[in-house]
Write a structure and sequence with these properties.
Distance between the termini of chain B: 32 Å
Largest sheet of chain B: none
CATH architecture of the largest domain in chain B: Orthogonal Bundle
CATH class of the largest domain in chain B: Mainly Alpha
Number of domains of chain B: 2
Chains: A alpha/beta (288), B mainly alpha (488), C alpha/beta (216)
Distance between the termini of chain A: 40 Å
Oligomer: heterotrimer
Strand content of chain B: under 5%
Strand content of chain A: 15-25%
Structural class of chain B: mainly alpha
Number of strands of chain A: 11
CATH superfamily of the largest domain in chain A: Periplasmic binding protein-like II
Order of helices and strands of chain A: HEHEHEHEEEHHEHEHEEHHHEH
Radius of gyration of chain A: 21 Å
Helix content of chain A: 40-55%
Structural class of chain A: alpha/beta
Number of strands of chain B: 0
CATH topology of the largest domain in chain B: MetI-like fold
Chain lengths: 288, 488, 216
């Protein structure tokens, strides 16, 4: 056993020798994987280049495979900045004392969820979540998503007074919004809930077969995406670094980059803006 | 026939699976599954090898993680094998190998993050447990006579090096090389949780419907595995082992404080963390059991039993494909290619592909498990039939299959099947991450909502379930006097 | 300790006694041949003596106990593993030292198989394997030789050569032999075993071959 342990320690030592040399003072950020990865990588590499220039620092984006991985990386100080959804932001900031929301998109003050349905259901757009969705198959986005999980679940419970598993014949988690769209478009699921901005962008790019899938309900607005930064960034990257990051994000005016989000501009945000999200998450039991 | 214990056992398992089918969620929910399947095969036929800049790097990382993981696992496993006779060691090894590589990766991701160590340990730890068991079995088989003849006073280490190792050397090497192939598969699927191996890019292309890219990656992966005998040479091994750590990539630096926090805070059950004490712990555990663990166990067991029987049936259908007793050389070659593809594709990737195509239910999981495991056992049984000499007037066709071959190989068929029972269950649990409601689903959900205390309890339950099935499988094999060699 | 005095030797197999109880006293200089029908208990007796003298003997068992995967050199060298430190033995496994190579080569030369030094024992013939086991016993150089049918796989001239070698190198020995002629030629004391008991124990020069034949 002791030999075994020594071996392990040796290997650990060796591995870290090879690897720990990287990125002494690189400023690293991530984003929740809410859309197709190719698009995310393209978008956030642009942001990384922009921030590198504005901050005169080495800035790097790393893609992750799940919302939780983004939160963990932020919590573990492997990334210092992150583009979170409403819920993941609340989770992340509650785990990192001193961290703060610094910027959100103009559209994120009042964000919406679209409930979408396959044409075979025969459902049309209505003013409330239609009773007819009961018994259909339904997909959320990611388990940790705000517009793909939290808000739709909240409204399903409000409308039916039951848990989603009891309302629908089958409940799935597609993983992200683009996939929710594709799965409902192809009829794998009859109904789904997704981020309205992703829908609108795909629609604009002519990527939706509108004969196969349509929006059946738009939820009331809620606060969503934001840039969150760790509280110890000033300490590690120099006095006033947080302010410089915020400044850089707020003054971002490259139309192409903004369009890739898609947001018209970034505006200041604070932790308090997301109090409603925290309350809903607690009510549903997603956070303690 | 019913007087044969092997036949009776088979029928009992068949009956359990049929009853399980009544409760299982088996359906194709996709609207047009065959079109998607067609698109996928079209993608495999029109591979795009130049899509992603990261493809070659991903292959390199896949190999590097496999090499480092298997090497570390092999060395640790070897030392554990030396003390394997002690009960605590055996229990420890059974425990670490009962937890799937992906679960280990999910655990390490929480405190090592995207550091290469996460991937290395995720492979090395469960492999240590497996290596310890198999190595100790091999060493036990060594001829004890030369050891008895040594002059008294010979050092333990010298005695071991001279009398045990040379005798077992070939078997140790063969098994380790075989494990390396398993390691490549494990390494590839680690990409699905975010490590920079093949699975990472496979998931990306698949989820976006870029089937030609995905096809290219799968083809490269098959080529990599099929050519192992060409590029894994004994003389090159030291080069690979020394070189591999340099190709793991940088990842992100480890913050050691996170490790301490994980063990002293994150995994402490929340009632204890919040100071509610034991009074709060019981309701917490109760809720966890009723709402997550029990449904998870139920679905895992049902899916495992159905997949086990499906594997068995598929094996019996597949082995004639490569048997010398049927068909011509062309049929057999295509049979070989099919079985190689079936067994080289990790269940997880097969299940992922089928889930994308057919929609969520237990069906894609059953098919994936049956294809992969049926491919492995079918290959072994097919090879075994090739050593059988039939009398020259033996019947042909179906009669030959039913009267001459199946009765001869049935015992070893059952031996392999029961050996893989525990492996099938381990995989079944992990497939939950893909959205089937087995234990993995609840583990993933707990991790997604940053509740590591719940995740750890659920992983422990999964491990216990695996150990239970392992013991039961061994009991049945002993009862029926079935012997087998290890497979992965 | 060159001779030994063992009493109460017994061995049972499956609840049935196959040997003894018997007493055997061997003085230094005794070169004992164990003779008797096959199944009389000769091999068992050799094993018993080996255990009782606490391994202070050079043993050539009937099944030889060679490590097939190792070359001849290492199989012979194993006779003196206790004489060296672990590191020395480990290095030898990879690259033997010159003085050891020389010693082992001399022994093999005496057994007329020096050209086989680096051949894996697995690829040797039965007679050659037997001589490797004998070389190991010689290299071990314990005060007593215990050998169980050491020439069973050797042809005539080689059998005589090996028996002569064993007689010259070991002053004290117990050798199980089925060949009565060999026993009388190379041993100075004959012990006959019958049904697990000593049925005959005389110096060779007081015996005729016919006396022994009564045992068979």
């Amino acid at each position: 056993m002791t030999q075994n342990l020594i071996r392990k320690l040796l290997i650990i030592g060796l591995c870290s020798l090879f690897t720990a040399t990287a990125s002494a003072k690189t400023f690293i950020f991530t984003a929740i994987p809410d859309e197709d990865e190719t698009k995310l990588v393209e978008r956030f590499r642009g942001i990384a280049d922009y921030l590198s220039e504005e901050l005169d620092a080495d800035v790097k984006y790393i893609p992750v495979k799940s919302y939780a991985a983004a939160v963990s990386a932020f919590r573990n100080n492997q990334v210092q900045l992150a583009w979170f959804g409403g819920l993941s932001g609340v989770q992340a900031r509650s785990l990192v004392p001193g961290s703060q929301a610094i910027a959100q998109g103009t559209e994120d003050q009042a964000f919406y969820v679209y409930f979408i349905a396959h044409e075979s259901t025969g459902l049309d757009r209505q003013d409330s979540l239609p009773e007819e969705v009961r018994g259909k198959t339904f997909t959320f986005g990611s388990k940790g998503s705000t517009s793909g999980r939290l808000i739709p679940e909240y409204h399903i419970r409000e409308t039916f007074g039951e848990a989603p598993e009891d309302v629908f014949s089958r409940v799935g988690f597609s993983g992200n919004h683009t996939r929710t769209l594709r799965l409902v478009e192809s009829g794998t699921y009859e109904v789904g809930a997704m981020n309205y901005a992703v829908w609108e962008k795909e629609l604009e790019n002519d990527n939706i077969d509108t004969d196969a899938v349509k929006v059946i309900w738009k939820t009331p607005g809620f606060p969503n995406y934001q840039w969150s930064i760790r509280g110890d960034v000033d300490e590690n990257y120099g006095e006033g670094f947080t302010d410089r990051v915020r400044e850089a994000l707020l003054s971002l005016d490259d139309p192409e980059l903004l369009e890739s989000f898609p947001r018209s501009a970034f505006i200041p945000a604070s932790n308090d803006d997301y109090e409603p999200i925290r309350k809903v998450a607690k009510e549903i039991g997603i956070i303690d | 026939m019913l007087s044969y214990p092997t036949v009776r056992t088979s029928l009992i398992f068949l009956a359990i699976a049929l009853v399980g089918l009544l409760f299982a969620d088996i359906a194709i929910t996709a609207n047009n599954p065959w079109r998607d399947l067609g698109n996928f095969f079209l993608g495999v036929l029109t591979p795009n090898f130049f899509s992603s800049e990261g493809l070659l790097t991903a292959l390199l990382r896949t190999v590097a993680f496999a090499f480092v993981g298997v090497t570390v696992g092999g060395v640790c496993g070897f030392f554990l094998a030396l003390v394997y006779r002690f009960l605590p060691v055996r229990v420890f090894c059974a425990f670490i190998r009962a937890i799937h590589e992906l679960f280990w990766a999910l655990i390490f991701l929480q405190f090592f993050g995207f550091h290469p160590l996460t991937g290395v340990l995720a492979i090395a730890i469960p492999y240590s447990g497996i290596f310890a068991k198999v190595y100790s079995e091999i060493l036990e088989e060594a001829d004890p006579e030369p050891g008895r003849l040594l002059p008294p006073g010979t050092g333990t280490i010298a005695a071991f090096l001279y009398t045990k190792i040379p005798d077992c050397w070939v078997q140790l090497i063969t098994y380790t090389a075989y494990r390396l192939e398993c390691g490549l598969r494990s390494s590839a699927i680690l990409g699905f949780v975010g490590l920079p191996t093949l699975g990472f890019y496979l998931e990306t292309s698949f989820s976006q419907g870029m089937y030609s890219d995905a096809g290219a990656m799968l083809i490269l992966f098959y080529v990599l595995i099929a050519t192992i005998p060409l590029w894994v040479r004994p003389k090159l091994l030291p080069v690979y082992i020394v070189g591999a750590p340099f190709f793991l990539g940088d990842g992100l630096p480890i913050v050691w404080g996170n490790v301490e926090r994980f063990f002293t805070e994150d995994i402490v059950p929340s009632p204890l963390r919040d100071g509610e004490g034991l009074a709060g712990l019981l309701p917490w555990l109760n809720e966890l059991m009723v709402e997550q663990a029990l449904p998870g166990i139920w679905n895992t067991v049902i899916l495992t039993q159905i997949a086990l029987v499906a594997t068995g049936i598929l094996t019996l259908l597949l082995f004639p494909l490569i048997s010398n007793h049927f068909g011509g050389p062309i049929r057999r070659t295509s049979g070989h290619v099919f079985l190689v593809i079936a067994r080289s594709t990790p269940e997880y990737i097969l299940a992922y592909i089928l889930l994308q195509l057919w929609g969520p239910s237990m069906l894609p999981a059953v098919v994936a498990l049956a294809l992969h495991n049926g491919g492995i056992i079918g290959h072994l049984i097919g090879r075994q039939t090739n050593t059988i000499r039939l009398r020259s007037d033996a019947p042909k066709g179906l009669n030959r299959y039913g009267w001459e071959l199946v009765p001869r190989v049935y015992r070893s068929f059952l031996a392999f099947l029961f050996y893989r029972w525990e492996i099938i269950m381990r995989e079944t649990a992990i497939l939950g991450i893909l959205g089937i409601y087995t234990l993995g689903f609840y583990v993933d959900s707990a991790i997604q909502s940053i509740r590591f205390d719940q995740a750890m309890v659920l992983i422990l339950i999964t491990a216990m379930l695996n150990i239970g099935v392992d013991i039961l499988g061994r009991y049945i094999r002993r009862k029926l006097a079935l012997q087998t060699m290890p497979t992965c | 300790m060159a001779g030994f005095d063992l009493s109460g030797l017994t061995a049972s197999f499956g609840g049935e006694r196959v040997i003894g109880p018997l007493t055997l006293k061997v003085k230094e200089g005794d070169q004992v041949a164990l003779v008797g029908k096959s199944g009389a208990g000769k091999s068992t007796l050799i094993r018993l003596i080996h255990q009782r003298v606490d391994g202070q003997s050079s043993l050539v068992p009937q099944e030889l106990g060679l490590v097939n995967a190792l070359p001849v050199f290492h199989n012979v060298f194993m006779g003196q593993l206790d004489k060296h430190a672990t590191w020395y033995n480990t290095v030898t496994l990879v690259r033997p030292f010159k003085q050891d190579r020389k010693q082992v080569l001399e022994l093999l030369d005496a057994l007329r198989m020096s050209e086989k030094l680096w051949i894996p024992t697995a690829s040797l013939s039965g007679g050659q394997r037997q001589r490797v086991a004998i070389a190991r016993a010689l290299y071990r150089n314990a005060p007593v030789l215990l050998a169980d049918e050491p020439i069973s796989a050797l042809d005539g001239p080689m059998a005589h050569h090996v028996m002569k070698l064993l007689r010259d190198r070991f002053t004290t020995s117990v050798i199980a032999l089925h060949d009565v002629e060999m026993a009388m030629k190379y041993c100075n004391r004959i012990v006959g075993i019958q049904n697990g008991q000593i049925a005959l124990d005389e110096p060779t020069d007081q015996l005729a071959a016919a006396d022994i034949m009564s045992l068979y």
